[in-house]
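request received
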Amino acid sequence: MADHELPDHVVTNRTFWTTEAAAYVAPGRRSWAAAEPSWGIWGVPESEVRILPDVAGLDTIELGCGTAYVSAWLARRGARPVGIDITPAQLETARALQREHGLSFPLIEASAEAVPLPDASFDLAISEYGAAIWCDPYRWIPEAARLLRPGGRLIFLGNSTLSLLCSTNNDEDPVGEQLVRPHFGGLGRIAWSDGSSVEFCLGHGDMIRLLRASGFEVENLVELQAPEGASTRYPYVTPEWARRWPCEEVWVARKRG
Ligand SMILES: C[S@@+](CC[C@H](N)C(=O)[O-])C[C@H]1O[C@@H](n2cnc3c(N)ncnc32)[C@H](O)[C@@H]1O
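response:
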């Protein structure tokens, strides 16, 4: 898709991720090397939350795969993954890590809002801080529904709505203990005040309505708690905050048969 056909936020976010890519090589390498899948900035082990279904034999698509460690974890559990990302520099890292680990699966440069793959070709669509926060949910969630077979699952992790309600549009300000962003009118498209990037976050009611209108039934909403003693390299939220409130959440939805 030519640049002039891409929405502004996609072009802005690709520029942002082209700049950020170098900083994600080492964390990507660590995650590729991890034996067990984990979730989010606190690394909550999959064995504690049991979010993933048995993926053996499933066709999976990771929307906004970045360095593609989530797809690597799925491949090691017997899935046939495909990774989609809009940023060539991120896909270069993913390809380098594939070579390092001798694990190959298709990586496609495309926007998760318009994926150049046929309808009903996957059993699981997944996003960990990829399309889940960088794409317009009113575009990427119907697109995920199109890509899934009936009965297929959509699993995505992003910042919790609560954490966004407790933060300003200046991403240098940490998540606080007061509501500072209006729920009504303050969610949806969130442009950071430095102009670097654009994120999206819906209220839970809007998300449930969007999922249902796109053909999904909601199966679960897992609000992640930082494990005791956990740390993160991200400065925007403290472990104390994330021990008391969920700063991340994982939605699990199933496409109607
Ligand atoms: C934090 S990374 C998440 C991926 C992975 N979990 C990781 O940490 O490497 C965010 C990724 O979303 C990608 N992204 C942003 N907008 C996108 C879009 N419209 N379509 C596909 N990928 C997109 C970025 O290029 C970036 O690689």
